[in-house]
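Give me structure tokens for this 350-residue protein.
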Amino acid sequence: MKAIKDYLREMDLVSGSTGLLGMHVLYDLTAKGRHVRALFRNKNKISLVRGLFEFYDPENVEEKWSLIEWFECDILDVFQLEKAFEGISDVYHCAATVSFRRREFSSMITTNRYGTANMVNLSIDHNVRKFCHVSSTAAVGKSVRNQSKDVVETDKWEQNPDTTGYAVSKYLSEKEVWRGIEEGLNAVIVNPCVILGPGDWNESSLTIFRAIHKGLRFYPPGANAIVDVRDVSKRMLAIMDSEISSERFLIIGENITYKKLFDTIADALGKKKPTIRVNKLLMGISWRLAAFFSFITGKPTALTKQSTKSAFSVTRYSSEKIDNWIPTKYYNVKESVDNSVQFSFFFVKS
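Here you go.
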């Protein structure tokens, strides 16, 4: 009888559960007493998730941890993924590949587009209650917008020579979700900007913490938007618990210059602030040298032609739409940076 009850109990599914956003979604769901099936590919990363739970709530770790069912699965493996969807109510699709390297474009498209298609198709087949897809500001239109106004959800996306492969992959991923909505899927899409928070400093946006910790001297002149991972996760859960459907939301904490962001991280780490403002000539030489040494050594580089172009652009985003639906205060950049740094010291010591 117990086995039957366990099988029939309401359970959420989280893909990308060991990533920065995915593990915070896990934490917030279990904090609400939800049972969660967590998809993962690398079991060695589960210890980081455990560390996050201990960092936020050391007294109730076991209680929350017991609500998680770990499920090893690649979202491209349809047969294995089919098993993961058994008994699932809500789906939080956080898994994605982030890369700005040309050689990884094809594999990124495969994971982000077709992996999302698999998640959408199985959600329809299993009649899930609701589906939340994590997209990106990279999939929101900028090319034809009025440069004097902030980017909003309805700005038309158009590919141009400066469009990154990552942006293409996230745009195509969203198209799979909209296709699912047309086929009857109850779904929402969130488009967070650069996400900051406790996580692995070797991955995605958090690599800047490692670079500044090592003594980064340079800063680019551009600007972008950042948001605390806790703000993204909590808004995702709020949207999923609401009647909101077939909507898309930018989630933006603060529009900020790279100089201010780098200085805030340096202060939190007790390091010297970057003082050399790079120009386009220096940046152009840098990415070419980085590409050359990457070819020689076989080691990937985070510095690419596309990433250097973005370092010089100034793009502002509006969170007005979601703020009207969910009027909740955001963490500021200092609070986000401090939280990330404190976790890194905690995790190393634990």
